Model the fold of this input.
Amino acid sequence: MNEQTKPLDRSHGAFRKNADAFYNIIQEGLKGEVDGVHFWDTVAEDAVFEFLYHFPGFATKIEGRQAYMDWFSGYTNELHSADNLHIYKDREQGVITLLYEVHGTIPHNGKAYDNRFCSIITIKNRKIVYWKDYMDSLSAYTAMAQ
Done:
């Protein structure tokens, strides 16, 4: 079965509602460039994700959609909104850069979580194949500290 027809398991933990604000702003930023109703539908099975920030226990590289979904199923922050989206496209190279912010709460300490991201995304055949992510690490570290 090819990637376009292979259904994703919508009961997988990566589909939890706590990250919908993230998924929705990414879908908004990639509108017209990728195929899929949900963020996970837009990710190629062999996509590579690199995270250029370092936290204990946080991977700096995840290979494959399933591996990222499995990681994301453990994401516990409760995001309630995302905004300040800026979109930069290089259609010749198939690269889209998204700048955005997410807002929510850290469940284990009740602190507000407000973070800024820069995601550089490579698209091929209307799917995400590569993702390089930068974020305001100090903001995340401060929010997660007990």
About this structure: The radius of gyration is 15 Å. The chain has a mean pLDDT of 90. Residues 19 and 79 are 6 Å apart (CA to CA).
